Amino acid sequence: MKNTIKCVILDDELLAISYLKLLCESVEYVEVIKVFNNPRAFLEEINNIDCNLCILDIEMPGINGLQVAEQIAKKHIIFTTAYKEYAAEAFDLNVIDYVRKPIKKERLLQAFDKVWEQLEHTPNSFLEWNSNLGKSHIEINQILYIQTSEIDSRDKDVLLLDHIKITLKNINFKKLLDLLPEKEFAQINKKEIVAIRAIKAFSNNEIHLKSKPESNLSLHISDVYRNSFLEKINS
Q1: Each residue of 45-73: pLDDT tens digit?
Q2: What per-residue confidence (pLDDT) applies to 10?
Q3: CB 37, CB 45: distance < 8 Å
Q4: Confidence of residue 87 (pLDDT cuts 50, 70, 90)
Q5: Which parts of the sequence belong to the Response regulatory domain (predicted)?
Q6: Which fold has domain 5-121?
Q7: d(CA 206, CA 172)
Q8: Where in the chain are the domains?
Q9: Does the pLDDT at position 90 exceed 80?
Q10: pLDDT class for 1, splitting at 50, 70, 90?
Q11: How far apart are CA 99 and CA 91, in angstroms?
C-alpha cells in the first residue's frame, strides 16, 4: 500500500487551484490538506501544517514560487507553471518535479510517483497525532509497542523505551500501520502492535521485549497474525 501523500497547494489563480485540487483528489493515495492563493499566508502557516508535499505555482505576484521554495524546510516540492524558462532554476532547488501547465492527470501521476518513491526511501522519524498530552511528536525509534487502551478502545497506548506511556486519541490500527514504517512494526494480535527491533526473543505464541528487568514484557501472538509476523521477522 502506498504511503499517503498529504499535499498543500499554492497558486494565485483560484481556477487553477480548483482544477489542481480536483485532479489531486481523484488519486486514491493523495490527500489535499489545504490550499492557498497567497504566498505570504502560505509561508506563515506551512510549518504548522502536517503535510509532506507542497505543489507550488512559480509565477505569482510579490513572492514567486522559487522564492517560496527556498523558505520551506523538510517538504517535498512540485512546481507548476506555464513558463518553461524556469525549469533550470527550479531543479537547482532540488525539487521533486516540474509540471507544465495546462496540467494533465497522467503527467501529475508521474510526479506523484516520484514523491512516493522519496517517501518510501525516507521513512518518517516521528509519529504525529493528537494524544492525552495534546499534539504529540513521538520518536518512532523509541516505541516498544502499542496496545488498545483499556479505558477507551478507540484510543491506543504507546509504550516507549523509557516506559513513558502516551495515549493516542481516536486512531485505529490500520491508520497506525499506515503511519509507521512498514518493515519496522508488526501487528501480533487484535490489540497490539510491536516494534520489530524491540524483540529480544520469541516463540510460536509469545514475544519477549527488550525492557527493564522488573517490567518483564511479554506479548501474545495470535493465530490470525502469526504467519504475517513470521514473514516480516524473516524478511
Answers
A1: 998 888 899 999 999 998 999 999 988 87
A2: 98
A3: no
A4: low
A5: 6-116
A6: Rossmann fold (3.40.50)
A7: 23
A8: 5-121, 126-234
A9: no
A10: very low
A11: 12
Phi, psi of 144 (to 5 degrees): -85, -60
Q: How far apart are CA 72 and CA 33, in angstroms?
A: 16
**What's the whole-number mean pLDDT along residues 27-49?**
93
Strand partners, 7: 32, 53
In order of 67, 91, 96, 126, 153, the CA distances from 221 in angstroms are 52, 49, 41, 26, 19
C-alpha cell at 234: 524473516
Phi, psi of 98 (to 5 degrees): -135, 110
For the chain, counts of helices (H) and of strands (E): 7, 15
| Alpha carbon distance 220, 98 (integer Å) | 49
Which one of 3.40.1160.10, 2.40.50.1020, 3.50.50.60, 1.10.10.10 gives the CATH number of domain 126-234? Answer: 2.40.50.1020
The better pLDDT of the pair 50, 17 is held by 17
Contacts of 180 (CB under 8 A, 6+ apart): 127, 140, 193
Predicted pLDDT of residue 214 = 45
Q: Do you find a cis peptide bond into 102, omega within 30 degrees of 0?
A: yes
